[in-house]
Every structure is written in structure tokens, then in C-alpha cells.
Amino acid sequence: MYRHRFNCMTVACEVILHGVMDDHAKSIVAAIEANTRRLETKYNFHNPYSWLSRVINQRQIADVPVDAETWKILSHVKSYTAYTGELFDITVGTLKQANTAETPEQHASQVAELRQYMGDRVWSLDDDCLRFTNAHCQFDLGGVVKEYAVDDAVRILKQYPMSGALINFGGDIYVYGKKESGDPFRVGIKNPKNPAEPLCMVKIENKGLTTSGHYERQRKIAGEAHSHIIGDIDRRILSVTVVTDTVLESGIYSTALTMDPRLEIPAGAARLFIDDQLEIHQSLASS
Predict the structure, then answer these.
(1) What residue ranges of the chain have pLDDT lower than 70?
(2) 19 assigned ligand-binding residue
(3) Same domain, 18 and 101
(4) Needs which cofactor (predicted)?
(5) What 3 state SS string does 253-272 have?
(6) Among 114, 203, 240, 246, whose CB has the most other CB atoms within 10 angstroms?
């Protein structure tokens, strides 16, 4: 087994490889770390000098030419977002212009004004261009890029022979193959009331897993704590875990299901809910 850890995108990142030659392992993890840092630099919403900020969010034109990688990411987001009824919405970056409000009342007023510039209808992809209907809309890919980085890491490691791998970027996880022993990987699902310990374990193979929970990160608006998930949250559900073929797809659905647990997502997506009584509701087998 070969293990590599680094910090990026504000989280701890870990790559575990099984059944791979040491020379290959070093090349794999070096390429994964370099690519992850590249994506962080390119799509960082909070850095005014990032490509995302300069080219998209500070744009002076309605039609923005985009590279092939950005087009691929946004086309996937567009498709998956349709399943969520816009509960997941990268134009939420527009609302963060209201974060400077000094009172909750000012914040609510600013948010109400900004919402008209948001939503799936205000942006589209046309050939190699990203087209906007207004100048105020901003993208925040915070719920996209880390997940995409895991999927891109899988693309890198699949170029080398190995028995299996586990990639974990701050709880966004992809499991490829099995351990060198032939045993499956087991992934722990956090106890929302005590995140230091797992509430249950699940076995997955060649799938991406994400967990969303409003208990994890808080932001302050006018001195009041709010969930990092912007939207109307069903607070009876403390966390939602989703497993699909990609981490990006799982991440979008788990975020949306945190806001509406009744949301219908594709039949092949497995889900696990943990409620405020720590009861588990699932279509995903635990072990």
C-alpha cells in the first residue's frame, strides 16, 4: 500500500494506492497533487486573480469563450442540476455579494434583489462560449471543483496498473477497484453529532461517494451563524450521503437532498440519510 497526503482546497487530501509499483505510485500521486493545485488556482471563487474571477465573474461581455475543461465541467453541472430543480445552483455566487450586510434585515433585502440575476435560465453553453443574460450573475464552483478534482485524479491513476485505490479529498471519496488483498474498501459515514467517529460503514467499488451536512461548516452573516449550504434546509436531516458513478454527480445530489430529502434523483444513485435522532434511512447497504 502507498499513501500520500497533502492539503489543498481548504481540506486534507489523501490518496491510497494498492498493488502498484513504488515508482509508478510516486508518479501518480505527484501528478494528482499537481493537478489538484492547478484546479484550485484556476477556479477559486475567493481569489480575485483566479481564472474564474477574472474571466467569468469580472466579465465585461455577455459571451465568454471557455476552454474544453471548463465546458466539460459546466455541461455536467447543467445536466445534474436539472435533476435537482435548481436546488443546486452554481449561480449562488451572486448572493455572496450580500455577505457585507451589517444586519440580517439588510442581508435579506440584498438577497431578494440579487435573486433575479440567478438560476439555470441566466446562463447557457453555446459551442465554445458561456453566455449570460445579465452582468450581475457570478459562479461559485465551491461545490463542484473539489468533486471534479477527485474524478480527475481517478482519470490519472487509471493510466497505471494497480489493484485498487481510494481517493479522499475532505470527505469527497472515490473508490477504484479493491485492496491488494482482494478485500473491498470500507468507507465510514460520520456521526453528525460526533464527526470524529463513524456511525456506520459502507462497501463501495468503482463509485464516488459524498456526504453533505449543514452541521459541518458555518458562515456568519451580520453576526449570525448560517449553514454553508445556501438554501432552505430540512433540519430533521443532519446529513445525506450519495453514491454514483462520479464524485461530481454525488456531490450535487447530496447537497440538493440536504435541502429536499424527497427530491427524485436518478434510479442508479444510492442514498443514505441520517436524521436528528441518528436513525439511518437508506438505499445503500451498510456493513
Answers:
(1) 214-235, 283-287
(2) no
(3) no
(4) Mg(2+); Mn(2+)
(5) HHHHHHHCCCCCCCCCCEEE
(6) 240
